[in-house]
Amino acid sequence: MLAGELRLGGAATVVLERRDAPTTESRASTLHARTMELLDSRGLLGALGTPPHEPRGHFGGVPLDLTLPSPWPGQWKVPQTRTEELLQDWVVGLGADLRRGHELRAVRVGEDGGAGVEAVAAGPGGRALRVRARFVVGCDGEDSTLRRLTGAEFPGRDAGRELLRADVAGIDVPDRRFQRLEKGLAIAARRADGVTRVMVHEFGAGPGGGEPEFGEVAQVWKRVTGEDIGSGDPLWVNSFGDADRQLTDYRRGPVLFAGDAAHRQMPIGGQALNLGLQDAVNLGWKLAAEVRGRAPAGLLDTYHAERHAVGRRVLANIRAQALLLLGGPEVEPVRALLGELIAERPQVRAHLAGMISGLDIRYDADAEDPLLGARLPYVQLRGPEGSLDAADLLRTGGRGLLLDLAGDARLRTAVRPWADRIVTVTARPAPDSALGAARAVLVRPDGYVVWTGTEGTSDGPENALKNWFGVSDRN
Fold first, then answer.
1. 12: Cβ contacts below 8 Å, ≥ 6 apart
2. Where do the domains of the chain lie, and which CATH numbers do they carry?
3. pLDDT, tens digit, for every residue of 211-247?
4. Statement: the pTM of the whole predicted model exceeds 0.85
């Protein structure tokens, strides 16, 4: 995802991938509404067809309707293998240099951390590859090699409990959605291809050492459910615990981190994968602007400021969910109370759904205008050539958007020096739209609003344009 964003911004990009071929492990399978919106804005959803959709999710195993105003509400079930295939085709088509079979061995940072980096990797046959670059970004997972090589601080806590899981063919067990039994938690979901994913936790059990064998999964499953799945054919077995860690700094000079390399959390409800993809979209356009000499002072530092705070909040909600999900009988009163609040208090449901889906992220939370810092809301508009919605507007090829809602010729003149970085669209919103009294809206390449103009406002968008898109050569 990051490589694609960098290429959209015009930055030369090399991806070093340790694996010789794409993984066949199913891993994560949930895309949330905000991630779907971002993929839509890059024109990527058409290739997915119509994936299975589920409006209902959960918070710590307590059922939760995730429906909120969005063209893609709820959960969308896309195997991680398909998501990776989609993104690989996209970035290669954009000209990213993808080098498989290359394992990072060393990183050298220039003096004072500001003179670029040299990465050394071992390639096929042990051949060494040296890559010199302005920046290096670790998107290499919770056991990040780049993090280890650079000594980045990764404070937090290790796992105290774990959930065992396996994809198993040839078994016939009932589907279970977070079924809490006397001895533990059991989850089972049979896919269209006949493979069943099972997940199980025995109350009170701590994490084992290393990756589990299928025999261990089968034994725990039998103790918790009474069912024997030992004769099945395991296609994939692993476990994940409730470890909780976050980098102190997402950026140190020319070294940055995104995704699980920046934060480690229990992958409950698909939040980990979605959090990582959204890190990449936040970082990509900023880093590309920096590389191309277009970034205003401090733009790249907003990546840490914005995404560290989002990551901290997600980790907090996952800690709460882990307690509700893996706790024994002692958590039942809390689960019952939360279920009542979700069912009887719409504000509680919407708050939790916004948190899990990523739709409630707001980077400028102290601004008086609720649009500022939030994603451009899903609205219907009427343009010169017919009806539009927010998804149509944001397909800008990685550029920003100035939405002129009043047909203001002066506004279009003001933004003209940034015409290579901003797409200008004139349209009128439907009555009572979520845009309120705004007569103009300036949106970053990642879809978040950085300026609004209203009736009687004397300030134009020039300061916001300079603060987020730099000083144009045409100024």
1. 97, 291
2. 2-157+245-357 (3.50.50.60), 162-241 (3.30.70.2450), 380-469 (3.40.30.120)
3. 899 999 999 999 999 999 999 999 999 998 999 999 9
4. yes
